[in-house]
C-alpha cells in the first residue's frame, strides 16, 4: 500500500515529539539522582561525626559539616589546599615570636619607635693599611765599611738619635783626619794673623804681609767648615774614640720594621740596612673605579672598619691619583689615619666608607634592629603581645641608624637591641614545626 506525502510528514512529526519527550524525561531523572546523592553525602557526614544516624535534609547535613564538632576551629576541619605541604600554615605562623615582659627583660631585647633620623650616604671600597711613606725612612749608611756592632733589632721602638749600628769605615777616618788637619792650620793661621796685625799697627811690618796673613786665616776657616760639613752630611760625629768608627743613628722616632744588616758584614754606602716607620700615622689605601670618582674627593670624611676584628676609626681622604691604571682602569686613593695605639697594622684588610651627604631620613631604625630572615632584611615589629618579622627595604645608613624605604611606618614600635635573640627563637620555632 503506497504511503502518501501527508502520511509521511505526520509520521515524522510523531517520531520527533517522541524523541523530545524522552530527552526531557532523561534530563529530569539525572537531576533527581544528583539531589539524592547530595542528601546521602550530607547524612553520611552526620553519621561519621555524631556516631549515630540522624535524619534530616541535605541542607541540615551541609550545616553540620561546615560548623564541625564542638571544640574544633573551622581551620582544623578545612580541607587541605592543593599543592600545600603539611605544616606550611604553621611555618608561616612561626614568623611571630611571643615573649613575656619578663622574658624580654631577661634576653635584653629593647623596644624603640621608628621615626626620622640623620643618616649619611656612603660608598664602600675594599682597602688595606699601609705604611705612611711620609713617616717611613729607608736608612742607608752613606759610607761603606764593615759592621762592628748592631744594637738595634727588628720590631724595636727607637727614639731619634739612638744608635742603630756601628760601622768601621775608612772614608770616615779620612774625613776626621782632614778636619783635624784643617783645625791645626786654622790655629796657626790665627796666631800668624794676630802677629802681622800687631806689627802692621806698630808700623814695623808692611801692609802686604798683613793682608797675606788675613787671606791664609780665611782659607783655614773655610777648610775647617768644609771638613765639618762632610761629617755632618753622613751623620758622623766630629770626634770619637776611633777615627774610623761610624755610628748609624735613627733619623726620627719610630719602629724598626725591616733589618738587613748583621755583625761582620761589609755594607755599601747606598745599601738599605734598616726600614724605620712611625706607625702613629698610617695610610688606608683603596682603589676607586672610574664611575665612582665623582663620589670621592680630597678632604672628604671617611670611616675605616677592620675586616679581622671589631674596630673603627675616622679620617680624611688625603690623596686621589690623577691617572687611571692601564690594566685596572682605577685610581689609587688613601686616607691618612691617626694610629696612637698602633692597632692599625700595615697589611690589615679594611673597608673604607667614603661619607658623601648627610640627610634626614623620614623613617629609620637602629642598625642592630636589621636582621636577615629568609634572605631578606627584616625588622621585628611589635604586633599586640607578639613580635613579628617584617621584610623591609633599606636605604642609606650611618654608624647608628638605617633608612627604611618601605615596609615600616613612622611611629611603629620595633625590637632594636639584641634583636638577634628573636631571630634565634624564630629559627627554633621553624625547626619544631618542620619536625
TrEMBL record:
Stretches assigned to the CzcB-like barrel-sandwich hybrid domain: 136-278
One Pfam family linked to the record: HH_CzcB
InterPro entries named in the record: Beta-barrel_RND_2, BSH_CzcB-like, CzcB_C, HH_CzcB-like, MFP_Cation_Efflux, RND_pump_MFP
Coiled-coil residues: 172-199
This protein's UniProt keywords: Coiled coil, Transport
Biased composition regions of type Basic and acidic residues, renumbered to the chain: 31-44
Any one GO molecular-function label of the UniProt entry: transmembrane transporter activity
GO biological process terms on file: copper ion export; plasma membrane copper ion transport
Residue stretches of biased makeup (Low complexity): 45-62
Domain CzcB-like alpha-helical hairpin: 174-233
UniProt domain CzcB-like C-terminal circularly permuted SH3-like: residue ranges: 363-423
Disordered: annotated segments: 30-94
One cellular component (GO) term of this entry: membrane
CusB-like beta-barrel domain sequence ranges: 281-353
Sequence similarity: Belongs to the membrane fusion protein (MFP) (TC 8.A.1) family.
Protein name: Cobalt-zinc-cadmium efflux system membrane fusion protein
Species name: Pigmentiphaga litoralis
Lineage: Bacteria, Pseudomonadati, Pseudomonadota, Betaproteobacteria, Burkholderiales
